[in-house]
Amino acid sequence: MWGIIDKALDKFKDNSTFEDLILEVKKKEIPTHVAFIMDGNGRWAKRRGLPRSAGHQAGVKILKEIVKISKELGIKYITTYAFSTENWKRPEKEVNFLMKLFEKVFLEELEKLNQEGVKVNIIGYKERLPQGVKDKVEQAMERTKNNDTLVLNIALDYGGRSEIIESVRNIGKSLIDSEISLEDIDEKLISQGLYTNQQPDPDLLIRPGGEKRISNFLLWQLAYTELYFTDVYWPDFNKVAFLEVIKDYQQRERRFGGLKKK
Ligand code: FPP
């Protein structure tokens, strides 16, 4: 059922084979921007008789692995869904755990991310986050703002519809203030009002965890993104699985609404 990833997870116990896989993947086009919906942490933990929090902790480990391998491959942007505008509906205990976890991860990983040239960019409605998280987030963005090896967008209290509403509101204001005219409203202007302003749209979205939906993530930006869904839970999605998904992506023909190349 799990297809290529399932096989990939059993393979490559020795490093030389893994290096071969990297070389193979590097021979073809590497996606510039990859987005992730990190789903399945809770079920991963439950299957092991562990609390859901253990699943989120295991999820952080995988995210770190993905950032590392992405840098090695030359991927320029990663956007990852850490907390949605809807996730506030979860039990208070879990929300509190997640907020503490975000704070801890930013604190512990910031220097390493900075040394590796990663630019941390938080996308989402920052105002509602607890002060501790807000502080760490601002610190991380400020500290890494001049880095350009890899941009790591972390979606925190993020919702795709809210993001579009915000952009449209700003455009409406410019219109009322006569700074722009109706004809100026185009795709570029709407994109400029999004958190991902100046960034290319994702080439590839990966959603582990078995659900086949977008869940209010990057609604505007995913218009022509290649989608990859797998039943593997996020904490089981390792770098080998990631390379296998990129190989699948490299087989696809992206037409952006046009016709097949002759
Ligand atoms: C979805 O799985 C996962 C989340 C809501 C949280 C993801 C967050 C992390 C992995 C931490 C990342 C940390 C930083 C600093 C970016 P789920 O709980 O919905 O799983 P389930 O569907 O199995 O219940």
Describe this structure in words.
Strands 3-4-2-1-5-6 form a six-stranded parallel β-sheet, sandwiched between helices. It has helices spanning 3-10, 15-26, 41-47, 52-73, 92-115, 131-143, 160-176, 187-192, 239-251, and strands spanning 33-37, 77-84, 118-123, 150-158, 204-207, 226-229. The relative contact order is 0.19. Helix 1 (3-10) packs across helix 9 (239-251). Strand 3, helix 6 and strand 4 (150-158) form a beta-alpha-beta unit. It is 47% helix and 14% strand. The protein is an alpha/beta fold and 262 residues long. The protein folds into two domains: 2-22 and 30-158 and 218-250, Undecaprenyl pyrophosphate synthetase, CATH 3.40.1180; 160-199, no CATH class. Catalyzes the condensation of isopentenyl diphosphate (IPP) with allylic pyrophosphates generating different type of terpenoids. Mg(2+) binds at residues 39, 226. One of its GO terms (molecular function) is magnesium ion binding. Its cofactor is Mg(2+).
For the residues shown, what is the average pLDDT? Answer: 94
Annotation, overall tally of beta strands:
6
Strand content: 5-15%
Strand/helix succession: HHEHHEHEHEHHEEH
Number of domains: 2
- CATH top level class name of the largest domain: Alpha Beta
Instruction: Output the structural class.
Output: alpha/beta
Tell me the CATH topology of the largest domain: Undecaprenyl pyrophosphate synthetase
Gap between N and C termini? 34 Å
List the total number of helices.
9
Please state the overall shape, judged from the principal axes of the Cα atoms.
globular
Low-confidence stretches: none
> Major sheet, described briefly?
6 strands, parallel
Radius of gyration: 19 Å
- The appropriate CATH architecture of the largest domain is 3-Layer(aba) Sandwich
Name the bound molecules: farnesyl diphosphate
Give the strand order, joined by hyphens, for the main sheet. Answer: 3-4-2-1-5-6
The fourth-level CATH homologous superfamily of the largest domain is: Decaprenyl diphosphate synthase-like
